[in-house]
Amino acid sequence: MATYKKRGYKPKNKAEEANLTEQNSTTAEVFSTLDESASKTEEWVSKNQNYILGAIVIVAACILAYLAYNQFVQKPKEASAANELYYPQQYFEQAMNDEVYKDSLLNLSLSGAEGKFGFLDIIEEYKGTKAANLATYSAGMAYLNMQNYQEAISYLEEFSSDDAVLGALAKGAIGDAFSQLNQQADALDYYEKALAHNTNDYTSPKFLYKAGVAAMNLGQQEKASKYFNELKEKYPKAKEATNIETLIGSVNP
């Protein structure tokens, strides 16, 4: 056990003197090693200080460049793209309420008119912005309503969103396009992705119903029954549940 030695302490015998000498030698060796390591570190820093300062300057420059880009390039670009999106969105909304001129209005929403950008222009000119992402979704929905299902799938697959409703609607719309192409397995896959994206009173009953119908068309009666019963139990007041007992009976004879 180590013993505290008072200043001026003298060993009582040769054994204690040898032990004390050994302790002092070890302590001196430790400090010597620390001094040597510190000296080597100082020497390395001194030798490489230009590289170190250069690295710090590069990192600082990258941070400042990012902040400047975000402030003076990206933000104005986002604002401009959002303003451009207003016009084609008006055509799209008009198309949803006008069956006579629906296709013409949808074409205007895609290609633009009167010197204003359409969805396709915004996607191309404002890549990387939120508005371009939303334009991608809207373009996909426009093509879906024009019965151009392959284009609809192509654009909707490019769209990404964490939004509970919009993200689910995009995946469900891809399911609708595949269903129209009579690719029921792909349709069911995307309806299930829409259900997995989020659970809510708006999109969940819609895609439980569609997933059940797609499963039924594929002859997967057990899976269809599961979706129909979930719709009945969790969303009995939803419009999709109006004739749910009939559908349940058809898959559970």
Summarize the structure in words.
By secondary structure, the protein is an all-alpha fold. The protein has two domains: 55-160, no CATH class; 165-253, Tetratricopeptide repeat domain (Serine Threonine Protein Phosphatase 5, Tetratricopeptide repeat), CATH 1.25.40.10. Helix content is 76%, strand content 0%. Helix 4 packs antiparallel against helix 5 and helix 6 runs antiparallel to helix 7. The N and C termini lie far apart (87 Å). The relative contact order is 0.05.
Residue fraction in strands = under 5%
How far the N terminus sits from the C terminus, by CA atoms, comes to 87 Å
What are the secondary-structure elements, in order, as H or E? HHHHHHHHHH
Low-confidence stretches: 1-7
Rg, rounded, reads 35 Å
Structural class: mainly alpha
Q: Tally of extended strands? A: 0
Domains (count): 2
Report helical residue fraction. over 70%
Q: pLDDT average, as an integer?
A: 84
Q: Major beta sheet, specifics?
A: none
Give the helix tally: 10
The general outline is flat
Q: Top keywords for this entry?
A:
Serine Threonine Protein Phosphatase 5, Tetratricopeptide repeat; flat; 76% helix; 253 residues
List the helices and strands and how they pair.
Elements: H1 14-95, H2 102-111, H3 119-125, H4 130-145, H5 149-158, H6 164-180, H7 184-197, H8 203-217, H9 221-234, H10 244-251
Helix pairs in contact: 1-2, 1-4, 2-4, 3-4, 4-5, 5-6, 6-7, 7-8, 8-9, 9-10
Summarize this structure briefly.
By secondary structure, this protein is mainly α. The chain contains 10 helices and no strands.
